[in-house]
Amino acid sequence: MGRFDDTVAFLTGASTGIGRATALRLAAEGATVTAVARSAEPLRELASRSGGRIVAQPLDVRDTDALRAAIGEAAGRHGRMEVLVNCAGVSRLDPILELDERHWREILEVNLTAAFIASQEAARHMAAGGGGAIVNVASIDAFAADSPAVHYCVSKAGMVAMTRSFAHELGHLGIRTNAVAPGLTATPMTMDESWQHITGVYEGRIPLRRPSTPEEQAAVICFLASDDASYVNGETVIADGGLLTGMWYDPADAPA
User: Fold this and answer.
1) Catalytically active residues, by annotation
2) Where are the beta strands (DSSP E) in 66-161?
3) 209 C-beta neighbours (distance < 10 Å), count
């Protein structure tokens, strides 16, 4: 028996990284997952590995009408909606004094507005079915500035605030809303050569001395989505290897 046997789940940002790992874990534990992302081919590959438990749904979450429709179709196909994971996210490095308004809007639309629309729509189906769980994938950048990425930091801080608001307003309907705030995670983006100057600095400051894997973040997400967290509501779990516990670590103190 899996923790998500007969559970209907909807997940955005499923084609790579944390979203992909979460979709696979949900499916492995018994859930039927509608997996959303812009890129169709990675979704098809993901679905092929799931034994029929993952349904690929290519779409751009900025198309809010299509997003609402996809959630409605998934709930209608199965008669209910019980888990939503908002993992779709994009990031850019734009200095504040050079930041184009178009890029500001793009980050907010993908990272925050789409998460709100998906949560609102899924919560309607959850309320009709007696409850459910929403898990938002935020970031430690909600709590400490990463430069130059003000738009990303603001979007993730907004997601943490939205998590609390949903938890407070919808808890009486049996809908739990929580978030995970990952630290540095070994995804295709962060392991790209262009990011190495950043990841190298981070790794030296993380007490565990390594980035997380997407699977480690997926484990936290699935805990929050499961009945194991049945009395957890409105929380943001920071999964950063201890990075935010201290301001600075002297490399001279590192073991050989």
Assistant:
1) 152
2) 83-86, 132-137
3) 13
DSSP 109: I
The Cα–Cα gap between 112 and 127 comes to: 22
Instruction: Count CA atoms closer than 13 A to 157's CA, side-chain side.
Output: 12
Determine how many CB atoms are found less than 10 A away from the CB of residue 230.
10
- Span 200-217, pLDDT tens digits: 788 888 999 899 999 999
Q: Is the distance from CB of 10 to CB of 122 less than 8 angstroms?
A: yes
pTM, to two decimals: 0.95
Check: CB of residue 125 under 8 Å from CB of residue 75.
yes
Rounded distance between C-alpha atoms, residue 131 and residue 229, angstroms = 14
Length of the chain, please? 256
Q: From CA 91, how far away is CA 211, in angstroms rounded? A: 18
Buried/exposed 160-176: b ≥16 CB within 10 Å, e otherwise: bebbbebbeebeeeebb
